Amino acid sequence: MAVDVKGELFAPVIKNINTKTLKQIKEELEIIKEKAKSGRFSSEDLKGATFSISNLGMYDVIQFDAIIPPNHVGIVAVGKEVDNKVKLTFSFDHRIINGKETALFIKRFREKLMDENYLKSLSS
């Protein structure tokens, strides 16, 4: 994700996100917000990402294409919620991952978002 700190853009990393609950991720996001307010990111806070999220929906942008940061396999652009739906635009570096794998990832991602039981299990 990208965070604006006094006009500069930083990309702090939540490491090992695949092993964390939504509650743990939310707690880490709160820590990131505090670090952003104080402008105190360490170099370790900014290393190790492979996939990013860019959310311009909070700025009333409905849909957009995000640019993949260096050393990342991909990024998802999150747009504004309209009619209880959010537009997500995925971009992948096909020098790193092939199109079939990305299509399967997006399919599985969508399935998980639509599965209420799965989402409930993440919050525990």
Automatic annotation (TrEMBL):
Gene3D superfamilies: Chloramphenicol acetyltransferase-like domain. Pfam families: 2-oxoacid_dh. SUPFAM superfamilies: CoA-dependent acyltransferases (SSF52777). Residues 1-115 form the 2-oxoacid dehydrogenase acyltransferase catalytic domain. Transmembrane segments: none annotated. GO terms for cellular component: cytoplasm. Its cofactor is (R)-lipoate. This is 2-oxoacid dehydrogenases acyltransferase (Catalytic domain). It comes from Venenivibrio stagnispumantis.
